[in-house]
Amino acid sequence: MFMNVAKELQAAKFGGYAIGAFNTSNLEVTKAICLAAREMDFPVIIQTTPSAIKYAGLKQIYDIVRNEIEESGIKAAIHLDHGKDWDVAKACVDIGYPSVMIDGSKLPYDENVALTKKVVEYAHERGVAVEAEIGVLGVEEGGESGSARGDSFSSPGQTAEFVKKTGIDSVAVAIGNAHGAPAGEKLDLGLLHRISKTIDIPLVIHGSSGLEDSDIITAIRSGVAKFNVDTLIRRSYLDGIYSVPKEEKDYRNLFEAAMVPVVEVVKQRIKLFSNN
Ligand code: G3H
Ligand code: ZN
Predict the structure, then answer these.
(1) How many whole angstroms from 47 Cα to the centroid of ligand 1?
(2) Any idea what the CATH number is for the domain that residue 45 is in?
(3) How far is CA 257 from CA 20, 31, 32, 65, 219, in A?
(4) Which residue range is the domain that position 30 belongs to?
(5) Residues 230-244: what's their mean pLDDT?
(6) How far is the CA of 58 from the centre of ligand 2 (A)?
(7) Is the dihedral angle over the CA atoms 271, 77, 45, 169 positive or is it negative?
(8) Could you give the C-alpha distances from 207 to 23, 61, 65, 158, 179, in angstroms and in order?
């Protein structure tokens, strides 16, 4: 079965480490993440965006991730990443996701609060953890271009109010992080520290692929318990695919070769997040 995400993130926050949340859209990346977690003997979150669900099919990707976690014997859970609306959040709760993100960060503040509260009520009644976002990151999830500076950073006061009003289990903040690892991505660690003092739930950093190791280590000390990783996964998978000679005739060899760099990048991230 899946690990209890809310409990594991709280344990990470107070234990001085973080849990990596790695994006997948298919069997091979899912297998690679599980292999890395088993070798590192460390918990992981395997997450699917709405576009990954559209690509693979909700039941298909849910079954792939659940089966791979069970067969690997690892401590892990599937998570909806960047759920943009009620329908996708409800569908994931209903099929069995133990954790969902409802991302209303682009909505006016009051609409973000209302949507998030609605998902929290539905999810918590079914024992499902909820992550939400306050503040706007510089680049959309899955984007590869754009500036690192977010449209609007999170603030201590509004984050504390948002957490109180919605009842979420973890909060994603915008403090200079951006999706797609743009050049110059840098966390405002002073702002992070001020935000973390106003709340007692775990913090989540999206857009971690482009962050310096030192920023990640300092952020963990300020209560960040989850780092999202997609760009490093995408790039390493493509590197693996392109490393195969074009004469290769068996596509299974192509996809197996592509898993190797993904396993390595996930192991390297787990080593960094585990803070050992
Ligand atoms: O939600 C997914 C992550 O925030 C992606 O971040 O682009 O730095 O890998 P990344
Ligand atoms: Zn993200």
Answers:
(1) 11
(2) 3.20.20.70
(3) 23, 12, 11, 20, 34
(4) 5-273
(5) 96
(6) 19
(7) negative
(8) 11, 22, 22, 21, 4
Enter the pTM of the model.
Answer: 0.95
Q: Which strand (E) or helix (H) includes residue 264?
A: helix 251-273
- The 8-class DSSP code of residue 128 comes to -
Amino acid in position 56: A
Beta bridge partners of 79: 47, 99
Residue with tokens 């079914």: 126
Q: Residue 130: pLDDT above 70? A: yes
Residue 90 near residue 130, CB atoms below 8 Å: no
Percent of the chain's residues with pLDDT above 90:
91
Q: Please give the Cα distance from 265 to 115 (Å, whole number).
A: 35
Q: Is residue 226 a contact partner of residue 205, using CB atoms and an 8 Å limit?
A: yes
Q: Report the domain count for the chain.
A: 1
Question: Would the CB of 234 count as within 6 Å of ligand 1?
Answer: no
- The encoded tokens of residue 137 equal 């990151």
Cα gap 38→40, rounded to integer Å: 5
